[in-house]
Structure formats: structure tokens, C-alpha cells
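Support request, please re-run this one:
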Amino acid sequence: MSEKAPKFDDRTGFCGCGTSRRAFLADYGMGFTGLALSSMLFRDGIARSALADEAAVNAPPTGLPMHRPRTKSVIWVFLSGGYSHIETFDNKPAINKYAGKTFDKTDLANPLDNPLHDKRSRSVVASEINVRDKYPIIYPLQVGFKTYGQSGIQVSDWWPHLGGCVDDIAFVRNMWTTDNDHAAENQIHTGRHRLDEVQPSIGAWVTYGLGSLNENLPQFVVLGGPTRSDTRQSIDANYLGPQYSGVPIDLNPAMPLPYGRRAEGVSAEDQAREFEMARELNGLLGAEYPDDANLRARIRSYELAYRMQMAVPEAVDLARESAETKSLYGIDQDNTKVAGERFLAARRLVERGVRFVQVFPSAYGVWDSHQKLKDNHTRLCATVDKPIAGLLKDLKRRGLWDDVTVVFCTEFGRTPGLEQRAGGRDGRDHHPHGFTIWMAGAGIKGGTVHGETDELGFHALEPAHYVTDLHATVLHLMGLDGRKLEVPGRRRLEIDHGKVITEILA
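Re-run finished. Output below.
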């Protein structure tokens, strides 16, 4: 080497450039193994991210519940695109009674004149341009309803299997949000409108607060998503640190994770030795850079990846399930196979201790029925109805009902007015002002309907629930208080914390 080695001051332990002896040795004295690790970390963005001026993330909570938990795990089901609340779980006979009339020609209050409309609306375009939710011609319901169970709850004819489960379900019919476009998919998971600072997703908050029940599996698993690159926020941890983000898993047991198996020619023993050496080297780096959240997260991810090589393929190996179980989820039918496989995998994952499983049973935006609503919803409901009912039944029979809470939601509803853009005549536009979600399982009072919309299904009537009330309810069931999870230096808004929907708790 032509350059002289730097000289260290024996009194201070620092070289002339201000680097400590231990840091210098950690950075430069590891030979080829050190170079390999540094290269690996740089390719992964760790060395580069260490140069960025990022806010330090405080140490996570203890991992213990803050109060008595009512559930151990959550299966969060999200239907992308916005299903029609008034043609699924919120029957509004007045829509048929006044079909074809404009809002101002009925004997009901005009929902467009209600102060709630502007109070809860937030658009990225001028209000005189944003008229999408103001179509005044009332469009009739495209499906009938039946009454189910001892609770006598009405569900549309598109959900016959789920209808048989209503005595186990709590429906919340007065949800609302503010984004009238599909950034609402992120909003229902983070609580923030797209014009605001991005916040961690609900799955990230759960795993940040509680940690793992199974060190061989991710804490937060995602099946079927994120639906697109611009919906990554819906599973992201943001400033909490990447170790709390959702981990997308494929249902192919041979390759459930990208690069999730040993390279050809590498034995298990060789790999174990490699990981042991990496662990020791990582320990040195971690000691020198204790405040680098990304480094800590990536070190843990490498260790977790090694352990997951056996655990994840087994967890998603649906071949281990009986033919009867697969039939319960509709896996033996073409139209229900995709959703059925994802719900069954979710059950297997929570059974093995995964805290939060976020399931996207359908592709991005497919429920967005601007046109041909009847055709679209008839087909789409049939793809999810049997599988989701199968999940509820399977949780019960496997003794998981008191350990797992199921959340079923979408980003917004559909307007009661006929969408008229581009000559529309058989669809409904986005509707953030009022929609329905439901919950079931651990800690939930089944056979319950909470809240309501007005006679036309337009506005969620007060006291209504912004989407973070759903977050607060989930955290409460998990034994967490969202206000105590706040990270110093990252002050959250009051609306971010939400309020627990106590009326649906068992």
C-alpha cells in the first residue's frame, strides 16, 4: 500500500480524522470478510442511508401489553377499490323509493346541503371542479337483501355465505374518511390524507408495540399486496423503522420470499457458519453505530431470513391441509381459489404466532365500480363470500376464535347517486362520506350493528367514526394504547389516535 496507515493517539483512542480506534478497526480492519459485509450492506442501502440525515428512532416499547389484551393476532382484510356499502351491508330502501329523482325532489333532507359534506371533504383539486360525489340522480339498488341469524341483520344477496355468520359479526355502518380518490387505500391504513405527512400503518404500530410471538416468522405478514407501488404506505412503518414494515409473502412454498432459499451448492452447515460469522461482524458494527435504525433492522432481517427458510415454507404449505378444509375456503373452485388460499394461509400464520396478517383477496381497484356495478359486484362478491365465511368458521373450529380478531374493510363506499361521467348509466362513484366495515372474533360482540348512515346512505351520522377509530379499536384489543406509542419528536395529531369503538366490544 502506498498510503501510510493513520496514526492513533494512545491517550484518546482516536486517529487524526476523529475516528475511534474501535470504529476504524470495525470499518477497515476486517479483511475480505469485512469488505464483503460492507458491500452487502451498501447494496442494501445501509451504508448509504447512514450518510443521510434521518431522525433517530427511539427504542421500541417493552413488547408487553399496556392493559389486558383481548386478542393475540389480527387478520386485516382489505378490498381495494371501494365496495358499495349500500349494496352489501347497509340496506337503504329509500334509494329504490326515490330512484330516478334528484336529491332535491324527495321529501328527505338534501345530503348535499348537510354541513357534514364540506366538513369531511378534502380534495386536491378546486371544489368547483371536484363534483364527483355530487351526482344528484338517485340510482336504485342493484341487489336485494335478506335477514339472517338470531340477530336479524340484513345482508345483500351477494353475500349468502357471510350472511350465515352475522351472529358472529359486528357491523360498523358509520365510517367516514376524507380522500375521495384511491389514495384513501393508504389513508385507511395510516390515518392520513395524502396531503399530510405520511404516518406508519396500523400493522406497523401493532408490531412496534408488541413484537413477535414467533421468532422464526415475520411479525407483520402481507398476502396479496401491496396492491401497487403507490400503495406501499398501507404496509409501511415509516419513521418507526423498517423492521416493523409488512413482509409480503408468496404462497408458493418453494419460494415464498425472494432470495429465500440457499444458493445451489451451499450446504446447511456452510450457510450456518456464514451466518454465524455475519452475526459476529454485525455485532461489531452494531456496537459502533447503535443509533442507526436501518442497520439494526437489516441485521435483524438477515438473522430472521435465516430462521425463516424453514418456518415460512411450512407455514404457507397449504398441501398439508385436508380436502375438506380447502373446500371450506373454496380453494377447490376457480372463482374462489385465490381468496381462499390467502385466507387459509392467514389462518395458518396466526396459528403460528404472527401478530398481524394483512390480506388483499382481490387485485388493486377491482371493486371500483364506476360502470356495470351489478355485473362487477355480482362477480366480485362471489370470489370472496365463501372464503371469508370459511375463515370465520375455521377459526372457531380450530380454537382460535378467542385469539384472533378479523377486520374486513375497504377505502370508501359508493355514492347513492348515478355516476354520469362519460355518459355513465349503471355505476356509482367514490363515496368517502359514509361506509361500512365489520369485525369478528376475539373481543368482538357478535350479532351487532353499530351506527348508521342517513336514509340514502350518504352521510355517516354522528357520532360517526373516522378511520383511526378502527385503528384505536384494534390497538385496544391487542392491549395497546396508541397515545402511549407516540414517538418523541414525531408528535401525532389528535385525529391520528382515534377513539375506541366500545359499542362493538364483547
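Residues 73-251+316-504 form a domain with the Alkaline Phosphatase, subunit A fold (CATH 3.40.720.10). Residues 373-397 form the longest helix (25 residues).
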